[in-house]
Write a structure and sequence with these properties.
Strand content: 15-25%
Number of domains: 2
Bound molecules: zinc ion
CATH architecture of the largest domain: 3-Layer(aba) Sandwich
Shape: globular
Number of strands: 12
Length: 271
């Protein structure tokens, strides 16, 4: 039983502002400690549930957040960037389950620190369905037949998870009280909830389903200003639909995912 964990930071209990999530800024060291402890809870639960291998992919910002000496030594840690597969780098059909911990809901939602990859994205759609990072990454896992079995974050992301992945276990560690505010469970209580949900997710692996990958994958991104869309449209194969919207279509979802990342990378810096 091999478990892959993609871990972000913004959905961690107690994390409420960009100043807490950027290396070098105020309270970042606290955030990475809280993030590491929640990841450890997911690792511990996974092993208790019957996992034999756990690989953690550090998926926040520059992807160098998890202090290796604070992570459960039974797990392997993938860190650093850029990684071609980004938040799902290294995920293959060899894995049985994926966990998404410390996640936040999609751009435009009332989730604490909501965004989709970066702040240029107003809305992203895969084949007509609005998605955030959870959806983009769950579809990637789907191309390998890997189900998302556990998600952790706030109450807004819980609703997004129930809608997209009704079979997945969810550990709610905080309630969004605004873009920069949340009502968090105590750190120990949050970790206990994650540990328990992770254990059940692995024990109940037979009930987990991979998403159905879309037949003709298309990504549509609405940016926040026309300069971003103009810049994103440089991507080969991309089509600009209107002042703010760029589309990319391909028969292979993994190419669509890569194109999405290319679009947002091209768009960033165009303020
Ligand atoms: Zn993040």
């Amino acid at each position: 039983m091999q478990v892959y964990i993609s871990t972000d930071m913004e959905g961690t209990a107690g994390v409420t502002g960009w100043v807490m999530t950027h290396p070098g800024e105020h309270d970042y060291e606290l955030s990475r400690r809280l993030m590491a402890a929640e990841v450890n809870a997911a690792i511990e639960g996974a092993f208790q549930g019957g996992a034999t291998t756990v690989v953690v992919n550090d998926s926040h910002d520059g992807m160098r957040n998890l202090p290796l000496d604070q992570i459960d030594p039974r797990a392997l840690v993938l860190s650093g960037s850029p990684k071609p597969g980004s938040m799902v780098e290294g995920l293959t059909e060899d894995f049985d389950l994926m966990f998404c911990t410390g996640y936040h809901a999609m751009a435009g939602s009332p989730s604490t620190l909501a965004h989709t990859y970066n702040l240029t994205v107003q809305e992203a759609q895969i084949s007509g369905r609005r998605v955030g990072e959870l959806g983009l990454n769950a579809y990637w896992a789907a191309t390998f037949g890997v189900p998302v079995a556990l998600v952790t974050g706030d109450d807004v992301l819980e609703a997004e998870t129930r809608d997209l992945l009704p079979w997945a276990r969810y550990a709610q560690v905080k309630e969004a009280r605004g873009r920069y505010a949340s009502l968090s469970r105590g750190a120990e209580a949050a970790r206990a909830a994650i540990r328990q949900a992770a254990e059940r997710a692995v024990r109940e692996h037979a009930t987990m389903k991979p998403l159905q990958p879309p037949e003709n994958p298309e990504v549509k991104v609405r940016f926040t200003n026309p300069g971003q869309a103009q810049s994103a449209a440089i991507c080969p194969g991309a089509e600009r639909l209107d002042a703010l919207t760029v589309r990319f279509v391909h028969s292979d979802y993994r190419q669509v995912y890569r194109a999405f990342r290319t679009l947002v990378t091209l768009a960033s810096g165009q303020n």
